[in-house]
Design goal:
Shape: elongated
Structural class: alpha/beta
Number of domains: 2
Number of strands: 8
CATH architecture of the largest domain: 3-Layer(aba) Sandwich
Strand order of the largest sheet: 3-4-2-5-1-6-7-8
Strand content: 5-15%
CATH class of the largest domain: Alpha Beta
Radius of gyration: 26 Å
CATH superfamily of the largest domain: P-loop containing nucleotide triphosphate hydrolases
CATH topology of the largest domain: Rossmann fold
Distance between the termini: 39 Å
Helix content: 40-55%
Largest sheet: 8 strands, mixed
Number of helices: 17
Bound molecules: adenosine-5'-triphosphate, magnesium ion
């Protein structure tokens, strides 16, 4: 189930354009073996999702709806579950069924002290007032012994009744994956995400910063991803923030290098290095058992669903690929490769990375690729030389980069590979393309 993230250091670099077309090419290549669960394009941009309008395809339920369900139902029920656990153990302690050394009791006390109550809708539940009172006392409770001070409030909360409330709210509290998957018959792939900006809403921005909520979201995202054979993620600029944990279940990261000018090239090289650093740190922390917080919770869930071995493999051997975008001449790619090698040499990391960074594809700067004309964004199959460029990217995804050159190869070998799918010589193709740039 390869998950490929198309990512880049900044906005407007071609992530969305290349994600859409790569997905189209992948779908085409899978041909006869295609079914509804084969290929999925996932718009991970929570700030400004665009793919659904670009492809003029509108999901039954958007990720905005998903946020609403997770916030108003799932999160609330999960919170009630936590409180139920706390109440059960506190009452057992007060009833002398367990003693102060009980590990579960100590965990419940920690949970009680640390639960973030800000997103919980106290007023929506019958027992809400009492719960609010319970949490107001938190500042006074420092040790297991002091749980006794909560006796008057705890006495007023009927556990059986609480359980009934929980049961009542549990129904329909989980989002249904099917409702968020938008299979597009015309393109034969599914679309996820879009179409209303989610983080435009203050409440949602607040929610996504709450680890327990974010974890719910990530967990659901994973459930969706797990259904497909191939997933292409259009990963927003600065993808390594809220969704950073998700970045770690990705098998291959395709970095877009913006070749339009030297400043952009420098930026791309810099960003590639910091992304790699981030992944390496994560992998090391995992190996040494040093992950904390959300990262730890997320990886634990990954391990539970895929097994330790698979997770170690993903984290340790994540593939890194480069797609050169907006190329205008082969010389630029050659210069960029030299610059990248030199950069890694300076950091003393060339040896470590030379065989891990694959040259997956290149797309010229081309007037056909114009987002102002929505339908034009899906350029695949409209222009044969551009389609060939994208086919190469898709082929490499399908073959796990096995035939792809790396930084160890000579520049000429790399250039030959990248032009392999094109017609005529490299130079003549570029001339043709350059003359068509408007
Ligand atoms: N190779 C190319 N040749 C010409 N124009 C291009 C090329 N690649 C991308 N573009 C154009 O650049 C603009 C930005 O592309 P796109 O929206 O794909 O970038 P993005 O990285 O997804 O941006 P954002 O960070 O805002 O989501 C679009 O108008 C697109 O048509
Ligand atoms: Mg985009």
């Amino acid at each position: 189930m390869p998950v490929v993230s198309i990512i880049g250091p900044k906005g407007g670099i071609g992530k969305t354009t290349l994600s859409i077309n790569t997905t189209a090419a992948l779908t085409r290549m899978l041909g006869d073996s295609l079914d509804q669960n084969s290929v999925c394009l996932f718009d991970l941009d929570l700030r400004l999702p665009t793919i659904s309008s670009i492809l003029e395809s509108h999901p039954r339920k958007t990720f905005y709806d998903l946020f609403e369900i997770l916030a108003n139902k799932t999160y609330q029920v999960d919170f009630l579950h936590s409180i139920y656990r706390i109440l059960t153990l506190f009452k057992a302690y007060l009833g002398k069924e367990i003693d102060g050394k009980n590990v579960q009791l100590q965990k419940s006390l920690a949970l009680y002290k640390n639960l973030n109550t800000e997103l919980f809708h106290f007023t929506e539940f019958d027992v809400g007032n009492l719960l609010q009172e319970l949490f107001l006392e938190r500042g006074q409770i420092h040790s297991v012994k002091e749980i006794k001070n909560l006796k008057p409030i705890l006495k007023k909360i009927d556990l059986d009744q609480f359980k009934e409330t929980l049961k009542k709210h549990e129904n329909n509290s989980r989002p249904l994956a099917d409702e968020f998957i938008n299979y597009i018959e015309e393109y034969k792939f599914s679309l996820l995400g879009g179409e209303v900006p989610i983080l435009g809403k203050k409440n949602h921005r607040k929610r996504i910063n709450e680890p327990a909520f974010l974890l719910l979201f990530l967990e659901f995202v994973n459930e969706l991803i797990d259904r497909f054979k191939y997933v292409v993620l259009d990963t927003p600029a600065g993808g390594v923030n809220h969704l950073s944990s998700l970045m770690n279940s990705i098998d291959q990261v395709l970095f877009i290098f913006d070749m339009s000018n030297s400043i952009a090239v420098n930026g791309s090289i810099d960003a590639l290095h910091s992304f790699i650093d981030y992944y390496e740190d994560f992998s090391r922390d995992f190996e040494e058992g040093r992950l904390t917080g959300l990262d730890k919770a997320y990886v634990n869930r990954m391990v539970a669903s895929r097994g330790e071995e698979a997770v170690t493999e993903i984290l340790k051997n994540k593939k890194f690929g480069i797609i050169f975008n907006r190329c205008q001449s082969p010389k630029e790619i050659s210069n960029c490769l030299d610059q990248l090698r030199e950069y890694l040499e300076t950091l003393d990391r060339f040896e470590e990375y030379k065989d891990r960074i694959h040259m997956v594809g290149m797309v010229p700067h081309h007037k056909i690729i114009n987002i102002t004309n929505n339908r034009g964004t899906l350029f695949y199959n409209k222009d044969s030389s551009l389609s060939k460029c994208i086919n190469l990217v898709a082929e490499n995804i399908l073959s796990d980069n096995q035939n792809c050159p790396t930084l160890s190869n000579q520049n000429q070998e790399i250039l030959n590979f990248l032009q392999k799918k094109g017609q005529g010589s490299w130079a003549s193709r570029f001339n043709k393309i350059a003359s068509s740039v408007g």
